[in-house]
Amino acid sequence: MRWRHKPGAGHWLNGWCCDGKCSQPLLAGLACWLKESLALISRKSDAATAINYTLNQWAALTRYAKDGLPEIDHNIAERGVAMYCMIGTCMLNGINPKVYLTHMLDRTADHPVNRVDELLPWVVADLLPRTGTLD
């Protein structure tokens, strides 16, 4: 298994990837298993629908293994979208996003997960300075 750094990958740790050569045998085994499993289950089952979807998207699913440059997931983009949404929500509620993020980071470690709704921007808006600017 060879590891190499991808150019333009941002953070140095995110930029390390396994060469596609180590993924290709695993993907080939997965394809065989999916096809074998499909033959054993009802064509109308949810599992069959999921397997057929996976097999129909196989070229896109395995593209990352061909040269190692594409990412296997969209985590970077998803984090960006989540951050953009958080900033927009803060601004709609008249909260400085930096202040809100600091407020969140100060509280999330000790806050019960089943009460996370108490930390939403519109809930804590009255506790934070009322400014919608990014300074």
UniProtKB/TrEMBL annotation:
Q: Lineage of this protein's species?
A: Bacteria, Pseudomonadati, Pseudomonadota, Betaproteobacteria, Neisseriales
Q: Which domain of life is it from?
A: Bacteria
Entries under PANTHER family matching the protein? BLL1576 PROTEIN (PTHR33678:SF1)
Listed InterPro entries = IS66_C (IPR039552), Transposase-related (IPR052344)
What's the protein here called? Answer: Transposase domain-containing protein
Q: Which residues form the Transposase IS66 C-terminal domain?
A: 86-122
